Give the backbone structure.
Amino acid sequence: MGHRRGLFFMLVLIVFTVFYAEVRGLLLYLGVIPLSLLSSPWYLIFHLCVRFLLPLALWLALFKEKIKQHLPHMRLGTSNIIYIFFISILIQPAMMFVSFFTSVIFRVQNDVPVLLESLFGTNPLWLVILAAAVTPGIVEEVVFRGYIQSVYRRRGFWIMLFMNGFLFGIMHLNAHQFLYTFLMGILFAYMVYATRSIRAGIISHFAVNASQITLAYAALQATEYLEATEDFNIDGALDYLADLDAELVTMVVMLGMVAFIVISASVGAVFLFRAFVKHNRKRASEYDALHINEETHTDVVPLSTRDRLIDAALILVIVVLYVFIVFVAR
């Protein structure tokens, strides 16, 4: 079955990622490449391309396929770009809440803040955005909302969305990141499906990453400014609050503000998402009618019991490999 190639490819991608990480670690240990290289945005761009595009290129060459056939290419239009951008911004408070929730459960460090802090060092903001927003926005979307989503298109709408989110979450190899990347993967997959355009996933992925980077950069700059100001002392301010026995009040106020922001932004995202869905229904129908011979969105192919068992076994292998890498090997 065509969709099974997606599962086999994920196994190859995970194994390749581990192998690549081990080789990189060995070269760092031997001093062949300097440790400072890891904080270079140019290295991050190289790393993402090697980790995702190289395995995909070899995989497609093995089956004599071209990536173009896996990338939906309908024109987005201005309205869709606006919808996608603001939905991507408004969902982020909810995703941050999910991230906080998973951090409490798994007690596992999120690699993203550490990576951003190292990148900010002496690099300009635009270069960090290029490396950590533009590059993954293109590379990861081509792999997951391009190839993976394409090979799963005949397994049914909901399975296509679920497996895209599941494999996207697995790919990050981090328990802290799994849940929110799983949800984001589903959102990106739906946007690509609804618009029939890989550009939808790229724009949304970029908007999410770029806004997170900008917020982190602004927070870092604000912290450095406050610490450099003689009239402001963070430790003194905290001691003052402790003396007033105001920690509980402060916590309640902060939680209330966070809840208000999360709920308000999520409600706005839902309204925009409904408008986005309605806007694309007619456009998608017209596109499918014009491209019916391309089999972009074909009928669901039923699976035999044997096929289902093989799929389940492959998914179990992926999960076991993920658990081993995340919780044992590290």
Notes: The CA atoms of residues 219 and 258 lie 16 Å apart. The chain has twelve helices and no strands. The chain has a mean pLDDT of 85. Residues 247-290 form the longest helix (44 residues).
